[in-house]
Specification:
The model has no long low-confidence stretch (mean pLDDT 93). Helix 1 packs antiparallel against helix 2 and helix 4 crosses helix 5. The protein has a single domain, classed as Tetracycline Repressor, domain 2 (Orthogonal Bundle), CATH 1.10.357. By secondary structure, it is mostly helical. The chain contains 10 helices and no strands.
């Protein structure tokens, strides 16, 4: 983390973080423009380079910040999450919505980080992607799948859920206004359907 940056007033910090996060999340590393970040945050380009050196330094900082913030929220959730697999998945998605109150683009940035292909960006992303994955896995460590049908492959189920929920998330960000209610309803309906498909009937009665 950049210690000098955190000496700024919190309002200015958040404007810069949110501005950079939005541009990186929507455009990916290669197409992200610092000029667009300047417009989003209303802060001169000189300050960006003063604190972060270059575009890669800024991207690394944003990735680090987003992952640590999200992981902190996931850890809080993990202390009270249910043992049901699908309820836990819903709790994770609700946590994504909760972090939007302070940093509206954290969920989309984390999604874009997982899909990033640029070699320069990938040179700094390894540890952040791993830390985020570990936090998500930890959220499920107390979950029981004893009531799942024998045919269910957990790796296939997890990948299917991940891709579908990520698709819902990205679609919502494409709208002019992100509707948390629409997103939550889509997620709840989908998880309810998937639960009915993979869970033994006698366990759901």
């Amino acid at each position: 983390m950049n210690e000098k940056f955190f000496e700024l007033k919190k309002d200015k910090q958040d404007r810069m973080i949110n501005g950079a996060m939005k541009v990186f999340a929507r455009n990916g590393y290669k197409r992200a423009s610092t000029d667009d970040m300047v417009k989003e945050a209303g802060i001169s380009k000189g300050l960006w380079f003063h604190y972060f050196g270059n575009k890669l330094g800024l991207y690394s900082f944003i990735a680090d910040y987003a992952v640590k913030y999200m992981n902190m929220e996931l850890a809080t959730m993990s202390n009270r999450h249910p043992e049901d697999y699908f309820e836990t998945t819903l709790a994770v998605e609700k946590t994504k919505l909760a972090v939007r109150k302070s940093y509206p683009y954290i969920p989309l940035f984390l999604s874009s980080m997982e899909r990033e292909k640029d070699e320069e960006a990938l040179s700094v992303l390894g540890e952040y992607k791993d830390a985020y994955r570990q936090a998500r896995l930890k959220a499920y460590e107390k979950v029981s799948t004893d009531n799942f049908k024998d045919i269910v492959s957990m790796s296939v189920l997890a990948r299917t859920l991940g891709l579908t929920l990520d698709g819902f998330l990205r679609e919502e960000y494409e709208e002019d206004t992100f509707s948390e209610e629409n997103y939550k309803k889509e997620v709840e309906d989908y998880l309810h359907m998937m639960s009915a498909l993979v869970t033994n009937e006698e366990e759901t009665e």
